[in-house]
From TrEMBL, chain A:
Family label: Belongs to the ETF-QO/FixC family.
Keywords: FAD, Flavoprotein, Oxidoreductase
Naturally occurring in which organism (per UniProt): Pelosinus fermentans B4
Molecular-function GO terms, alphabetical: oxidoreductase activity
Domain (ETF-QO/FixC ubiquinone-binding) ranges: 233-308
Name of protein: HI0933 family protein
Domain (FixC-like C-terminal) ranges: 395-455
Source superkingdom: Bacteria
Automatic annotation (TrEMBL), chain B:
GO MF assignments: iron ion binding; iron-sulfur cluster binding
UniProt xrefs under InterPro entries: 4Fe4S_Fe-S-bd (IPR017896), Fd_FixX (IPR012206)
UniProt keyword terms in alphabetical order: Electron transport, Iron, Iron-sulfur, Metal-binding, Transport
Organism classification: Bacteria, Bacillati, Bacillota, Negativicutes, Selenomonadales
Domain 4Fe-4S ferredoxin-type residues, every copy: 21-52
Species of provenance: Pelosinus fermentans B4
The protein's name: 4Fe-4S ferredoxin iron-sulfur binding domain-containing protein
Length: 456, 93
């Protein structure tokens, strides 16, 4: 535990010496090079260009969003503040009117669900979106603000002059070098550019989760019937307990216009030690007696996997370096279900810092630290701080999701079941049943631990 | 065709015939490795057991979905992302 914390906090002091020859003569120098055209990188590029900076945005995939998958919800308020009335521009799949949690065991399902028509009018609450559409929309905005965009360019490492970042090296076939006053790394959860350039330590497999997903096509009216939705509206359902087969982790269902996205994930270390094949975990959920009827007749059109940083506040590495900022998933800015919106905000803050640096022609870490300061003062870091101990709690109580899903379902079962025994005897019976699953003192201590974490 | 092959069949790939982006660094380590966590961990079954004693694992890098998790569970795996434009393409979010 302590080791991971130490590694995450440790400032990498090794010499940032690259064996690549740097040739800066006769080349164009940008104000900023942004690596990765996801929500963080594209937002950063957009807000930088809007303030008059000359920005180059690089993406290794053939188009924005090509390399990432998983159910996506766009949070209205966060996005609206950055991109006013984005719902008129970005093509969203469904407006989310229903949010639910299903606590599951192999034969039972206890659900909490909330739906409201209040969520169906502006300013809304959440939307489901296709990543490809969202990312392309952000990149298009960036391009129209003056950003130079390049697809199919993979950055292999950062170029340094001493410890000052001065450019990026593109891997073959292009083998080019691009130079800029500021480099912004937005290359996602598995930030190999930052790691290879000795800017951050290797991420711990306990702090990063692997998610697998399937997209299943169903007619729009069938989705609305099965999930009891009004025409055109959507639902996001979190599945707990059964889906992760005894480990802490989550699963979810997102409804799109004419497809459903179902995913499941847990930490990389849990996957590796459990010996559970990720795709088998997914088919196990799809075959659950209460999930299968929702998917009947659907066609699987895409299977995929991706990683999400879930180490929380304590896993955030050094994100400001001389001439360089790390934003979005690469900076581990993910808080529960909040990822894309935190990424966009980190891009926005990085853009403020880049602008101030450019104005003063000072690209030191001290000047760029404005990015970190703005993050710290915003809801982004404050929320991450408030949830800081959740990652550790999940490691300390590896049975948390599994056992308490079972207890919750057992309690619900016994309460629902009609016995011939007198009410008073039934209450004692239920109490004994529950405490046989987890002794009272142990349960009290677990609850206390959870309360402590929630209170912050 | 089993269920997993069906899952793999719906993924779009642009494989790089010239360059392999996932490598085993030292086959000798795999020969001694009992856990072989890579076999179950990989979400797209890139690592397969082979019948050759010298090279106990096959790396089917062309079906890699680029999550990059393998490099975190085993130091003997050298993972880097495919070259620009190659590899997996996701369309459905």
């Amino acid at each position: 535990m302590l080791k991971h914390w130490y590694q995450a906090k440790k400032i990498v002091e090794s010499e940032k010496k690259s064996n690549i020859e740097i040739d800066t003569s006769n080349v164009k120098k940008y104000d900023v090079v942004v690596v990765g055209a996801g929500p963080a990188g594209a937002s950063a590029a957009y807000f930088m260009a809007k303030q008059g900076l000359d920005v180059l945005l690089l993406e290794r995939g053939p188009f924005p969003g090509a390399k990432i998958c998983g159910g996506t919800s766009l949070i209205a308020e966060h996005t609206h503040k950055l991109f006013p009335n984005f719902w008129d521009e970005c093509q969203c799949e469904r407006i989310v009117m229903q949010q639910a949690y299903w606590i599951m065991t192999e034969d039972s399902l206890l659900s909490t669900s909330f739906q409201s028509l209040k969520f169906t009018a502006a300013p809304y609450n959440r939307f489901t979106v296709k990543r490809r559409v969202l990312y392309q929309w952000l990149v298009d905005k960036a391009i129209s603000a003056g950003v130079t965009f390049q697809c199919n360019y993979k950055v292999s490492e950062v170029l340094f002059d001493g410890s000052q970042a001065i450019g990026v090296q593109i891997s073959p076939p292009q083998k080019k070098q691009f130079f800029a006053d500021i480099i912004v790394l937005a290359d996602g959860a598995n930030s190999m550019v930052a790691e290879k350039s000795n800017l951050i330590p290797r991420v711990s497999p306990q702090n990063i989760s692997l998610y697998v997903k399937e997209t299943i096509v169903l007619p729009a009216n069938v989705i609305e019937e099965r999930f009891q939705l009004a025409y055109g509206y959507g639902s996001i359902i979190g599945l707990l307990g059964y889906p992760t087969a005894g480990f802490n982790g989550t699963s979810s269902i997102h409804t799109f216009q004419d497809s459903i996205n179902i995913n499941v994930g847990m930490t990389i270390s849990d996957f590796s030690i459990s010996g559970i094949r990720p795709y088998e975990l997914l088919s196990r959920i799809k075959n659950h007696p209460f999930i299968r009827p929702l998917l009947v007749g659907g066609t699987v059109v895409e299977y995929g996997a991706s990683v999400i940083p879930e180490g929380g506040y304590y896993a955030i590495p050094e994100i400001v370096h001389p001439g360089l900022m790390i934003i979005g998933d690469a900076a581990s800015l993910v808080n529960g279900t909040h990822g894309i919106n935190l990424a966009m905000w980190s891009g926005f803050f990085a853009a403020q810092a880049a602008y101030e640096s450019k104005k003063k022609r000072d690209f030191s870490a001290k000047k760029l630290f404005l990015y970190r300061t703005l993050l710290d003062e915003s809801f982004v870091m404050q929320d991450l701080k408030a949830n800081a101990k959740i990652a550790k709690l999940q490691q300390d109580l590896p049975y948390l999701f599994d056992l308490y899903s079972k207890i919750a379902n057992e309690t619900a079962f016994q309460v629902s079941k009609v016995y011939t025994m007198p009410k008073k005897a039934k209450r004692i019976f239920i109490f004994k049943k529950i405490t046989s699953m987890q002794p009272l003192l142990k349960m009290a201590s677990d609850i206390w631990k959870v309360i402590k974490v929630v209170r912050g | 065709m089993n269920q997993f092959d069906e899952q793999l069949a719906v993924i779009r790939f642009q494989p790089d015939e010239e360059w392999q982006h996932v490598l085993i660094l030292d086959d000798a380590i795999c020969q001694k490795c009992r856990a072989k966590q890579c076999l179950t961990f990989c979400p797209s079954g890139v690592f397969r057991e082979s019948t050759e004693a010298k090279q106990p694992l096959m790396v089917l890098y062309k079906q890699c979905v680029e999550c990059g998790g393998c490099r975190l569970i085993c130091d003997n795996i050298d993972f880097s992302y495919p070259k620009g434009g190659y590899g997996v393409t996701f369309l459905e979010g």
